[in-house]
């Protein structure tokens, strides 16, 4: 299999002149002058007596006048709440300033401003199965969603929940899950979600850290045309939470299939219907006029916790602020992407990926959202039938999906896709050939935006603008208000058309509050450790700027876009196959549990040491290679390889199964005993052994073997 050029070769990227041929324009805005961005620019010009003319000028102004910019975003997008006078103090990262220090706001209130019984808020679609070849669509209007949320708020209040308590979900992408999130956040609780396809061990690692008071879970999920019971996984999780962490949450079960499996139901669980009904009867959390009693809190109030797994330790519990999420999504969706209440917005995502949060923030625009549970590709025509049937205008997905689709199906030959306006892709870099496929075989005129940001900011650093053209293979622009640049390893700007590290030079309102536990939510040592880990993750690489861990190239400005962006992969040891990001630690834990010297069944089944890295592929995706060291004289048998894969699949997920498992003589370590992944990754992707600083390693001689294996893997 051919390999994507490694990052040292990427410096040979086309010059701005040659890029005119290499990266032609594939889409131009129909009426840029009427775009939300241009209307916003006029407002800024008028308010501040400026004459900004291009996106580039607006971007520069927005990142040098962050207080004026974000204050105007609040006003122009009609945020509901009290804004107050303060916006942000003039400090640099790593100081994480307070934003809108006098504001009072509630995220869910802003999601449910539309109360219309005529306007559809959510449509839930499911993958067909042989038993249900035409699964019925479920939908709720904004009025019905409001009513549902109000019932859940009352039920949660009757359990005694209060602001700051955690409410978790281990669910599929359904209407009830959105309502539960809105209800929890309406009353100031903190939302935490794990996708139903996560194995219980992984969910335990997450929920153990945040100690939820309530868990919403589905009874089954549909994937690959099959119904998979979910209650056994839930039972394992609950047992672990109770036995190992003394956590005994209230459990609410959402029925997703007509006949729930018998025999697994615990008497302690409540059904969703009963829970909501009880809530309605109690009628708590309503004002005298029948309004939901929104818990308006500070702008920096914790909204939800997202997990990102790194190379070491447990998954990082990233806490996002309510006001920051709100303001950022309003800017992204209403101003930059120009999504309006007339749009029908779909994103293919599980509930454990930040794109779910991105999608449901679309409620604040008042448009219709489409939720989907199932495989997107088992029947590749299914999602495009939905596009036609539901009039989907904004279609979000991953680069991996577009690549796989291009090998299987040509949607335009079979469907009327005239409703489509935008298509978004994320998770991994969108290969130039995928741009061609979308324009040739999906729609010739849509805005195709490759977007990037991630769990750490639960939003975008670079992505979409309806006012700008799309260049083949490039992200359109850096997002307004985000002072994104690329740095050399020495911490200086790398300049245009040269690869570097993605950094953000100025504070932004969706910068996370920190890692859990926040001060006041846990013992002092745990809070201090979380703060140190947060600092280490984002601010230790370069002084005074946010380091994101993505290797990127910012192109020279064209047509006033201020420079597009090309993603070159992760800079650290985080694995990202098919756009699903996880830490190598998630693989290592399973190896330790089942194959270590103390846990393996026999010497033949023992993995003495290991290291997992991502290898870049030609299409911009990456595959995971797991290197294992065995006892002297042992050979990696197919039986051991199969067992490793089985354990990783069942204890983690199918996505955690490495593409290759290869035996090595040794695994490199730093002088202070840390297993090193980044040098192995570099070498596997083609960098010479001499590019690694061998003085920092205990056993640099072992790298030669990785170099040889890398050559073989790249053939
Ligand atoms: C927007 C993103 O960057 C999504 C992701 O890849 O996690």
List the helices and strands and how they pair.
Layout: H1 7-10, H2 16-22, E1 25-27, H3 36-48, H4 55-64, H5 66-76, E2 81-82, E3 104-105, H6 107-111, E4 120-126, E5 138-141, H7 142-158, E6 166-171, H8 175-186, E7 190-195, H9 200-210, E8 214-218, E9 220-223, E10 226-229, H10 231-245, E11 250-254, E12 270-271, H11 272-282, E13 302-308, E14 316-321, H12 322-336, E15 344-347, H13 354-360, E16 368-373, H14 382-390, E17 394-398, H15 399-406, H16 411-414, E18 422-426, H17 432-441, E19 447-450, E20 452-454, E21 459-463, E22 470-471, E23 477-478, E24 484-487, E25 499-504, E26 514-515, H18 524-538, E27 546-554, E28 565-570, H19 584-595, E29 609-616, E30 622-629, H20 638-651, E31 660-663, H21 678-684, H22 703-713
Parallel strand pairs: 4-16, 6-7, 6-8, 7-13, 8-11, 11-12, 15-16, 15-17, 17-18, 18-19, 30-31
Antiparallel strand pairs: 1-22, 2-3, 4-5, 9-10, 13-14, 14-26, 20-21, 21-23, 24-25, 25-27, 27-28, 29-30
Helix pairs in contact: 4-5, 7-8, 7-11, 9-10, 15-17, 19-20, 21-22
Acetoacetic acid is lined by residues 354, 426-427, 451-455, 460, 579, 581.
Domain AMP-dependent synthetase/ligase: 115-503
Region (Disordered): 1-28
Domain Acetyl-coenzyme A synthetase N-terminal: 55-110
Give your account of this protein's structure.
The protein has 715 residues and is α/β, with parallel strands linked by helices. Among the domains are: 125-295, Rossmann fold, CATH 3.40.50; 574-714, ANL, C-terminal domain (GMP Synthetase, Chain A, domain 3, 2-Layer Sandwich). It has 22 helices and 31 strands. An 8-stranded mixed sheet has the order 12-11-8-6-7-13-14-26, with helices on both faces. A 7-stranded mixed sheet has the order 5-4-16-15-17-18-19, sandwiched between helices. α9 (200-210) crosses α10 and α21 crosses α22 (703-713). The protein is globular and about 75 Å long. The model is unreliable at 1-21 (pLDDT under 50). The structure holds acetoacetic acid. Acetoacetic acid binds at residues 354, 426-427, 451-455, 460, 579, 581.
